[in-house]
Amino acid sequence: MMRDVGFLYSHSRLSSFDNCPRAFRYRYVDKITVDVQSIEAFMGKLVHSVAEKVNLVTATGKVPSLPSVLRRYEIMWDEAYHPSQVRVVREGTEPDLYRSIGARCTENFYRRHYPFDLDESLGIEEKVLFNLEPTGKYKLRGVIDRLVRTRADGIEIHDYKTGQRVPSQKIADRDRQLALYQLAVRERFPDEPVTLVWHYLASDRVRTSERSPEQLEALRAETVERIDVAEAETEYSPKTGPLCGWCEYNDRCEAGRSHLGLEPPAAESEPPHTVPDAFETASPPADEAPPADLEPAPPVVETPTQVLEPTRPEPTPPARQLDLFS
After folding, report:
1. 134: how many CB neighbours lie within 10 A of its CB?
2. Which of 2, 54, 110, 290 makes the best surface tag, with the fewest CB within 10 Å?
3. Using CA atoms, how far apart are residues 145 and 326, in angstroms rounded to an integer?
4. Are 226 and 253 part of one and the same domain?
5. Is 76 found in the same domain as 154?
6. Which domain holds residue 106?
7. Nearest 5°: phi and psi at 22?
């Protein structure tokens, strides 16, 4: 793949290459469009959309009631869900199970942040664009779910996850996505301390992590190297595994279908449709990661420095709490 100066990359694009070079080729080189998404992705995007609406409203000093927020989630599900466009991979599970998980995520989000005055929103669905090196040859973009200034005058980068499993602290400390966002945030706030915060909404758990300047510089160099590897790729060999069942291209990938015990893909009768590059036209998926695990999450050992537990009074209907989502 030939490099154009200024071509945009993202954490999602790099993760796609890491997970399976063949799927990466289908999505970003061949630019094959698909009309079906996994129900995990559908639910995750819906929860993110509701959280964004709540954050925008509460940033103005108004607080929608919890019933109105949950009602809005249900309405949006009914309006957006179409069985022909949403695929349930796990055998024996029904769409209503995912719907209920999404509702639980939404309620946990609301209760953890209520009364929405613990900090200040500096950005909601904040788009970031930054260079990994001075020439502008390696540009990255992303979307921060919420950028926050704390009461202690620190900066936090918040990310909402709807999967069931909560990674260990060790994994959080190695996470690439939010650390890349910190590189962009550091340009805006060069002197303030930055904390990375993940909200695992299904289980109402929080992970936090911090990066030293040395770690960020190492990440910058590693990311440049990884982009070079992706762009030097010519074979795009498939990487089969558990994610094959969720891959939107397993209708055409012979290796994936073989791994799943399916018949070889039928020969294509027409050339694939193409679209403008996703990084020029749209934000990356809300939760582009391995599918949500419906089994109970494993126990997580937490320490006070790693887990945020703000005081959360039971939501009540004060004068400023409105049915803004009705």
Report:
1. 7
2. 2
3. 24
4. no
5. no
6. 35-117
7. -65, -45
CA distance 208 to 172: 7
Per-position DSSP letters for 87-141, written without gaps between them: E--STT--HHHHHHHHHHHHHHHHHHHTTS-SEEEEEEEEEEEEESSTTSSSEEE
74 and 41 in a common domain: yes
Which residue do the tokens 């990661």 mark?
289
Distance CA 308, CA 121 (A): 17
Q: What does the pLDDT profile of the chain (326 residues) look like in tens digits?
A: 444 444 689 999 999 999 999 999 999 999 999 989 999 999 999 999 999 999 999 999 999 999 999 999 999 999 999 999 999 999 889 999 999 999 999 999 999 999 999 999 999 999 999 999 988 889 999 999 999 999 999 999 999 999 999 999 999 999 999 999 999 999 999 999 999 999 999 999 999 999 999 999 999 999 999 999 999 999 999 999 999 998 999 889 999 999 988 888 766 544 444 333 433 333 334 344 444 444 334 333 333 334 444 445 566 554 455 555 65
Clarify whether residues 159 and 47 are in a common domain.
Answer: no
